[in-house]
Structure formats: structure tokens, C-alpha cells
Recover the amino acids of this structure.
């Protein structure tokens, strides 16, 4: 068996193999947990002690104890770019929420170029972050990966050092051994915060000027759910919209998503399973294809106890994420629609109603807010259908990126 990583977008001709390391050294150094506790190698300690402009990226599952990471990052003045699944999006001074949006500008990327990037866990949901990570690595910025399971998900092959230990254990070691001699750049975190806050204001203003959009739905759901509630996101655009546009807030809800090889398999069943096992409210944010792909999850026996859950379905008549990739320009429209857009004949409202769900439509922010109130009081499975347009959704995202960049450039 040969596991081969294909270069995106997986269309076009073959390219050359990548070159090896310039000095002929191994691609990376791996340090196991026992070595970390016994004393980290000098190279690792030097990286943490000498680097003042550091970016910490947290992806994947939630950290067991994020306070250790946040406290040390705050002490050193390091911005933490944690996706919404991995770390609660609160107003903590080191947490950056909208980096994906303002880092789509080359001048901003260059102004915020770090001396070291620390990756914790799985890859971040943002491909923009992964893209500039690769550029920085090419420019000589070292990348250090931390994964307690030793999986080291590094599809761009940019890692220099891999630590097979928990982030909590690592940052405890750093607090004990590196804090006293560590350098701090007081302006580093400050400029990241200015860019992030300016982008958040620009996003809010742009969304307020529009009717209900997919980013606005994600932002609203994150805002209205409570600390003990769960927002379960489908694995394509919904989880990215929450990551890109959800504003930080005190006591944020838990965010979950099926990320990895599963794609859209079993999303409805996952939402309902979480609802059955949770004490707070569970709301799913899914696309029409993911919803239709797992309709059997809505089928319950007459004698079974149906969990209480609300599923908000973004019905944009197909796979919205593909409109953001290279396929629309690389393929004829009809070919793209059939192979990637894949609009369906089924009416979401009628299908959900036939399967016994309480179904509502929402076409404005006010009607969505009202629908969420109504479904919260409704036992069993509720479905809220929000109809959007795929092409318009691309334009909305382009506008939000543009205003975020302009706002960040104004405060650099």
C-alpha cells in the first residue's frame, strides 16, 4: 500500500517532486513524551526562549486544559489562533478570531511574519492559515508541531520539530524552564489584536447591511447558544463559517464537527447522538447535501425516545464549498454543476416534514431568531430551513474578506 499525498486541486498535469532539505538533514526531528519530561533538547528550548514573535495555532479536538496554553501565551505576548472546535472563542486577550480573513493580504502577512510557529493538534480549519504557514516555512520560519498521539498531521511537510506530548505537559515545562529567560515583544500581540478587532467590526457592519447570509447564520448561532449548549457543524462550509465569522463572547458554546475522512457521512446522526448525550441544547448547522445524505438518522421507532435537537439546514441547492475552489473556472458550467454542484430534486421542507420533524423556514435574521426560540420549546427534532444562493454566497465571502483586509490595513 502506498499512501500518496496529491497536490490540490487534484486536476491538471503532473509536477516535479519537492526538493530535499537544503543542508541534507532529515525532514524533521521527533521528541517523545519521556524526553520532554526529562528535559527538552537544547534546540527546542532555544527556539522557545529566543523567539519573541511566535504564533500558536490550535486545531482539532478541544484542549483538556487550555488555561496553561493561554497563560503562557499571555506571559510571552503570543497570539493564539485556535479554531472554534479546539478552544472556546472567548474574549481572552491572546485569542485571535478572524485571522483567516485579514491574512488574505500579502502586506499583512508580511507585517505579521513570526519567528516561530507552534502547531497544536490537528490542522486548523482555515486553509488560508495553512497557506501562509507554507510560505513562511519556505522563507525559513521554523514550525514546531505538538501532538500527544504522535500523528503529526502536516500535509504541507513544513514541520522542523515534532513533540509527541500533550500541550498541557509542554506548556507546564515551558513555564518551569523557559519563562525566566524568555524574551517578550510588547507590540507583537498588540498589533494582532488591533487587526482582529478591526476585522470583527468590519464583518459585523457588512453583515448588518445584508439580508440573511450563510456567514450571518453561523455568527448568530454561535452568539445565541449558551455556555452549556453545543453547536454541531457540518464538515464543509458550516464549520468554516463558524471559524471565520463567529465573534468572541464570554462563556461560548461548545463547537463540534466531524472532520477527517468521513466527509458528510452521518452528520444528522452525529447531531442527534450529541443531543442525546448532552444536558444543554444541541443545534446542528448543516448543508442540504449533508442533511439528505443522512435522512435515515431522522427515522425513529414508535417506542423510542427521540432526542430534542434543532437542525438548521443551509439549502443552497448543492455543494457550496466547491464554488470557492478551482473547479468552476477549470470546468464547463454543466460539468461543474453535475459533478460538483450536484443540486438535488428533493425539497428539504417536505422531506423533513414527512419524517415527522417540526419544520420552519427562515429568510431573515429576525425570522431565524424567532425560529430558534420556537424550536427550543418544541420537543423532538426540529428543522429550520434557510435558503441561500451558492454564487451569491461566494460574493458575500469575498466582500467580508475585502472589508476585513481594509480594516486591518488601516490599523497596522
Amino acid at each position: 500500500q502506498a499512501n500518496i499525498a496529491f497536490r490540490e486541486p487534484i486536476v491538471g498535469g503532473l509536477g516535479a517532486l519537492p526538493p530535499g532539505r537544503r543542508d541534507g538533514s532529515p525532514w524533521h526531528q521527533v521528541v517523545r513524551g519521556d524526553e520532554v519530561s526529562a528535559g527538552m533538547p537544547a534546540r527546542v528550548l532555544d527556539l522557545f526562549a529566543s523567539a519573541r514573535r511566535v504564533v500558536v495555532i490550535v486545531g482539532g479536538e478541544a484542549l483538556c486544559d487550555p488555561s496553561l496554553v493561554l497563560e503562557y501565551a499571555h506571559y510571552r505576548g503570543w497570539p493564539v489562533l485556535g479554531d472554534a472546535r479546539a478552544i472556546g472563542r472567548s474574549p481572552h486577550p491572546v485569542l485571535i478570531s478572524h485571522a483567516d480573513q485579514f491574512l488574505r493580504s500579502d502586506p499583512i502577512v508580511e507585517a505579521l511574519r513570526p519567528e516561530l510557529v507552534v502547531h497544536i493538534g490537528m490542522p486548523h480549519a482555515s486553509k488560508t492559515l495553512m497557506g501562509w504557514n507554507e510560505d513562511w516555512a519556505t522563507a525559513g520560519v521554523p514550525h514546531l508541531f505538538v501532538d500527544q498521539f504522535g500523528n503529526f498531521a502536516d500535509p504541507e511537510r513544513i514541520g522542523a520539530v515534532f513533540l509527541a506530548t500533550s500541550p498541557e505537559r509542554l506548556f507546564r515545562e515551558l513555564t518551569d524552564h523557559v519563562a525566566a529567560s524568555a524574551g517578550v515583544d510588547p507590540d507583537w500581540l498588540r498589533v494582532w489584536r488591533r487587526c482582529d478587532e478591526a476585522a470583527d467590526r468590519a464583518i459585523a457592519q457588512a453583515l448588518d447591511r445584508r439580508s440573511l447570509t450563510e456567514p450571518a447564520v453561523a455568527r448568530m448561532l454561535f452568539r445565541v447558544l449558551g455556555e452549556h449548549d453545543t453547536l454541531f457543524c457540518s464538515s464543509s462550509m458550516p464549520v468554516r463559517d463558524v471559524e471565520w465569522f463567529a465573534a468572541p463572547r464570554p462563556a461560548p458554546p461548545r463547537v463540534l464537527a466531524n472532520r477527517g475522512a468521513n466527509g458528510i457521512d452521518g452528520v444528522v446522526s452525529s447531531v442527534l447522538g450529541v443531543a442525546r448525550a448532552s444536558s444543554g441544547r444541541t443545534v446542528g448547522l448543516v448543508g442540504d447535501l449533508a442533511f439528505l445524505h443522512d435522512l435515515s438518522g431522522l427515522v425513529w421507532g414508535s417506542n423510542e425516545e427521540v432526542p430534542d435537537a434543532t437542525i438548521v439546514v443551509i439549502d443552497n441547492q448543492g455543494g457550496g464549498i466547491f464554488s470557492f475552489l478551482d473547479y468552476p473556472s477549470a470546468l464547463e458550467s454543466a460539468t461543474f454543476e453535475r459533478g460538483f454542484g450536484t443540486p438535488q430534486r428533493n425539497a428539504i421542507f417536505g422531506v423533513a416534514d414527512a419524517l415527522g420533524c417540526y419544520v420552519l423556514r427562515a429568510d431573515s435574521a429576525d425570522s431565524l431568531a424567532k425560529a430558534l426560540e420556537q424550536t427550543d420549546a418544541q420537543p423532538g427534532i426540529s428543522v429550520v430551513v434557510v435558503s441561500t444562493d451558492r454564487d451569491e454566497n461566494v460574493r458575500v465571502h469575498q466582500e467580508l474578506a475585502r472589508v476585513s483586509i481594509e480594516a486591518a490595513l488601516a490599523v497596522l
User: Anything to note?
Assistant: The chain has a mean pLDDT of 88. The chain has 17 helices and twelve strands. The two ends are 50 Å apart (CA to CA).
